[in-house]
């Protein structure tokens, strides 16, 4: 099966290398070199995954993602130059699904793309299989697993697909520690690697969104060295 992928990258040498490799993996690639043009294409066409560089002419990747997430939930993997810790954190806060430091291995990128696609496919299959048991409620939190509606104290939560999966896992194991390994496998579709803070950033972003409408800093607890726990009510 061929998947449509949008690559927004102004480094021609890197882009051509990635395109050659991705086409061998049967991806259909659209390549844009400017952030503003890439955003227009992303909003007017349908893609399965977007690969987005941070440093771009026109608008940068963070601005692109901020605007894009207001309208679309398509998975986004960000490419970051080494040392761009702040931009990477901002990317997660705005809804990036994963990140990869540059220069990146095409093989590693393909593995990340496939992991994101597997997660999306699993979400779709789970949604189709859910009938009557499609609602999870814990204290002020409410999730509808079929419509992906999320609220806290009746106020809507605008969650990315990954944030929704993380919260769903925590709610379905209320009062239990859910390991980072489990969250990474089930929410991101990939094995947790050494020094990978993806799950930490998604949980941090989730906490901030909940805190905007529900002031309870201990709702999601960090269990050092183990994972995260949603407190019982």
Structure, described:
With 233 residues, this protein is an alpha/beta fold. It has two domains: 119 residues, 3-Layer(aba) Sandwich (Rossmann fold); 100 residues, Winged helix-like DNA-binding domain superfamily/Winged helix DNA-binding domain (Arc Repressor Mutant, subunit A), CATH 1.10.10.10. Helix content is 43%, strand content 22%. Strands 2-1-3-4-5 form a five-stranded parallel sheet, with helices on both faces. Helix 4 links the parallel strand 4 and strand 5. The longest helix has 24 residues. The termini are far apart. About 3% of the residues have low confidence.
Let me know the average pLDDT: 85
| Share of β-strand residues | 15-25%
- Content-based structural category: alpha/beta
What's the multimeric state?
single chain
CATH topology of the largest domain: Rossmann fold
List the strand order in the largest sheet: 2-1-3-4-5
Query: What is the CA-based Rg, rounded?
Result: 18 Å
The coarse silhouette is globular
Main CATH class of the largest domain = Alpha Beta
Number of domains: 2
The topology string of helices and strands comes to EHEHEHEHEHEEEEHEHHEE
Uncertain spans: 127-132
Number of helices: 8
Query: Going by CATH, what is the homologous superfamily of the largest domain?
Result: Response regulator
State the major sheet.
Answer: 5 strands, parallel
Domain Response regulatory: 4-117
Modified residues (4-aspartylphosphate): 53
Keywords: Cytoplasm, DNA-binding, Phosphoprotein, Transcription, Transcription regulation, Two-component regulatory system
Pfam families: Response_reg, Trans_reg_C
């Amino acid at each position: 099966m061929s998947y449509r992928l949008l690559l927004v990258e102004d480094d021609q040498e890197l882009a051509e290398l990635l395109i050659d490799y991705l086409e061998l993996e049967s991806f259909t690639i659209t390549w844009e070199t400017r952030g503003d043009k890439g955003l227009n294409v992303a909003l007017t066409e349908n893609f399965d995954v977007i690969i987005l560089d941070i440093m771009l002419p026109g608008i940068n990747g963070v601005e692109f993602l901020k605007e894009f997430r207001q309208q679309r939930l398509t998975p986004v993997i960000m490419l970051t130059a080494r040392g761009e810790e702040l931009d990477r954190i901002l990317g997660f806060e705005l809804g990036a699904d994963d990140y990869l430091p540059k220069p990146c291995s095409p093989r590693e990128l393909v593995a990340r793309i496939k992991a994101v696609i597997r997660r999306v496919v699993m979400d779709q299959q789970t949604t189709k299989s859910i009938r009557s048991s499609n609602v999870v409620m814990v204290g002020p939190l409410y999730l509808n697993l079929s419509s992906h509606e999320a609220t806290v104290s009746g106020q809507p939560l605008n969650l990315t697909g990954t944030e929704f999966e993380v919260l769903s896992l925590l709610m379905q194991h209320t009062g239990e520690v859910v390991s980072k390994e489990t969250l990474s496998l089930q929410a991101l579709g990939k094995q947790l690697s050494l020094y990978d803070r993806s799950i930490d950033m998604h949980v941090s972003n989730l906490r901030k969104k909940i805190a905007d409408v529900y002031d309870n800093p201990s709702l999601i607890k960090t269990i050092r060295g183990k994972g995260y726990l949603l407190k019982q009510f």
